[in-house]
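so my prof wants the structure for this chain in the tokens format not the other one, which i didnt know existed until like an hour ago. anyway here's the sequence
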Amino acid sequence: MKLSVENVFECIPAIYSGNLQEDNEENYRLYRKLVKESENTGLCPVLIKKDHEFDYLERLSDHRIESKEDYKKDIDWRLYRANHCCFDVWLGRMLYDYKLDWCATKEDVEVCLKELEPPLSNEYKCLYQNAEEKEVFGIFDEDEVNSKYGQERLCFDNYVFALLPITNPWEALAWFPMGGFNWCPSAYCQIALAKELYEKYEARIMYIGVDRLIYYLEKPLMDKVDIESAARTLIIADGDIYCDYEEAAKNILGSHTWTLWWD
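here's what i got, hopefully its the right format
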């Protein structure tokens, strides 16, 4: 049997009208509704493409996956391995070492370490003086939805909300692993990151793409200590969108969604 999202999981089609901006907002509302219902159903929603590439699972598992039973065994193995290889040595080493591994010179290391320090600028200090919750927009960022890329590549007719029988939202990345290419950390590091972000900030996986993860927070971070802690984690994890402390802090302060993207 060829695995597909729709023949393995209970799925709800994403809302599609052809108007990308409206669909983005409506699917965000639908996601929040499904999260609320998950308290009773035990089924955790995650937005995924209908034609999600299951071949990646075979490369990661190093064997053919020909049945739901094979798939479930691999999920259990990924969670076991992540728990024993990542979580007990988490932020102090895993992604920190990963980030420094890309440094070619001593100067590169110094730049990388400097990025992890909160800036002393007046602009940065003022960031918290008028902190406020940002207006809810949608699953994808407003700039992305209105960009040429978004208009050409994003179509909610190609997506479904897979309802996963999991206890913790971060376990979704054992069912749909991603990572291990270019600058992107391994699939096991991604599970560890998702667990860390959920336990510390209640950030839950909302969307899993080929090179992108989107997290959802019902209560966005507003406190300076929380923002600085989360910003440091995201800088280590993602070298593209959260490229320095100030940019990361501005992006996540008051925001219900966090986007991580790797080139």
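also thought this was worth mentioning. The beta strands are 10-13, 44-49, 159-164, 204-208, 212-216, 257-261.
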